[in-house]
Every structure is written in structure tokens, then in C-alpha cells.
Amino acid sequence: MVGTQMLAALPGGATLATSRNAHDGWLMLDLADLAQRSQAAALLDSYDLNAVYCVGGMTNVDGCEAQPELAQRVNARGPGVLAGYAHRRRLPFVYFSTEYVFDGSEGDPGPYIETSRPNPLSVYGKSKLEGEQRVLASHPDALVLRTTVVYGPDPGQKNYVYSLLRSLSAGNVMRVPEDQISTPTYNRDLIHATLGLVAASARGIFHVCGPERMGRLEFAQRVAQRLGLDGSLLVGVSTAALLQTAPRPLQAGLAIQKLLRLHPDLRMRTVAEGLEDCAAEILAATVR
Ligand SMILES: NC(=O)c1ccc[n+]([C@@H]2O[C@H](COP(=O)([O-])OP(=O)(O)OC[C@H]3O[C@@H](n4cnc5c(N)ncnc54)[C@H](OP(=O)(O)O)[C@@H]3O)[C@@H](O)[C@H]2O)c1
Asked: Which residue in 5, 28, 203, 235 has a CA-CA distance of 20 to 30 Å to 114?
């Protein structure tokens, strides 16, 4: 989801996209298999690059619990190796991380700032925290961007807005965790902010997300309302009732003061503004 928006935002024809699967014109790169810098060199040395964006990752939070070793290779070891390669070539490197590096506990709730103490609860969160550490250790000038609940236009129609649209327009009840509090992020703003940080040669950890902290139920209700869906089909439940494999941070969310201090004119849109930008596009493109 983030990667396709990144490709849309970068100058057409000037981007070298990679995938673990074969795609026309794309380079094959499986982060799980990237163990040595020489592998990255064999793949990338012949290309004239000016930045590396590590957007790929094992993002299935529950799936990571079942395959912790694979999650570590994809989310931590591979990005660390790639960052080391970028450092050797003096290229900016961006690693996308997550609010799930925090525990969202009542005793230490969000919104978190960049220096807040990480304490991941899940294999996914642990692998991403290790990824951050490996990336910064092998490329001290790298950018680590933590984001959360990314929504917006997505050709793969994978994100939460699309799940809501499909379920609610089919008349299905959707159970939504009302105790997961976060700061939803419009994907186009995430990309815009990312490119701005790279242009400003920013380094280190930045939180990049929307400006409002809200529960998943409220977010789902706002989406339903904006897309003209039947919000009465949304049923608020506790996270515990969903019996998900991986524990989730509940009282979470990220704060973006550091980002806004560097870029005071940056517009990270509210959910209403983000949906205003993309609702018509999403409704027109969605296969229900
Ligand atoms: N979406 C969010 O709300 C959110 C929140 C916080 C952080 N993030 C972070 O943002 C980044 C992008 O997330 P996203 O929402 O765009 O996730 P996504 O839609 O699931 O995209 C992840 C991409 O990574 C690829 N991938 C998976 N395993 C790989 C491997 N072994 N080697 C190379 N590529 C692999 C996937 O390829 P396939 O298509 O082959 O599966 C997919 O294209 C991730 O690093 C994620 O941790 C996202």
C-alpha cells in the first residue's frame, strides 16, 4: 500500500521498484534472503540510485507470531543489510517502522514521541524495533519513520477502508475494536512528508502520522459516514474479544511535533480531510 503510493509520487520512469515476486520491469529482491551486503551490491551496483526506500516488510501482525524467524529476517536483518549497502554508496535510506514498537499500556500510554521508551508486545513489533536498530547501526544517517493505521487509495484494495467498504456494502456486520486508540495516517501525506524529510537530509527517527488520536470504532464510523455506508453495522468490541493471535498496543498513537518543527508548513490531514481527498476515487475504483 505505501509502496504503490511511493511509486506514484516519484518521477515516472525514474524509479527502480523491487519485489520478491517477478513483475515486468521490477527487480527481484526478497528481504528474507538478504543476508550479506555483497548480495545487495550484485543486485544494485549497476544502477544509478539517489535514495533507497525500504517499504517492503512482513506486515501481517498475526502471521508474524507464527513465523518469528521469518519476520526477523524480513523486517530486521534484510533492511539492516540494505541500509549498510546504501551507506557504503552514500545514499539516503528510509526505513518504515510502526507504532507497534510501543506497548500502549495504561501506565505508559501514547501519543508517543520519538524518544519514548519502546516496548513491543508482538513479534511484528519486536522485529520492526530490531529493524530500526539494525538500520541505524549500519547507516547512522538513515531515516526511520514510524507510522500507524495508514489508509487511503490503494490499487491492491487492502487497507482498512476497503475492508469496511466491502463488508458494509454487502450488509455484513463488522466487529471493530473500540479500545485500540491510534492516530490514523493518510497515505499520500505519509509519502509527501517522507519525500520532504529526504529532501531536507533529515536523519534519525521521526513519527509521521495524522494529527488526531481516535479509537478504531470512531475511525470506522467516520469512514462509513463519508463513504455513505451503513454505520449501524459497526459493532464496537474489546480487542480481547477478537481473539487475535498477536497482542496489540491499545492506548497508543504517535505525536508529530518533531516533524512539524522541521516542516511547519506540512499538512498532515485529519481523517475528514484525508477522506475528502480520496472518497470519490475509492468508491469509483472498488470492486465489491
Ligand atoms: N499500513 C500501516 O498501517 C502501517 C503502519 C505502520 C507501519 N507500516 C509499515 O510501512 C511499511 C509498508 O506497509 P504497507 O501498509 O504498505 O504494507 P503492505 O501493503 O503489506 O506492503 C508490504 C510489502 O512488502 C512486501 N514484502 C513482504 N515480504 C517481503 C519480502 N520478504 N521481501 C520483499 N518484500 C516483501 C509485500 O510483498 P507481496 O505483495 O509479495 O506480499 C508488500 O508489497 C511496512 O514496513 C510496515 O511495517 C505500515
From this structure: 5
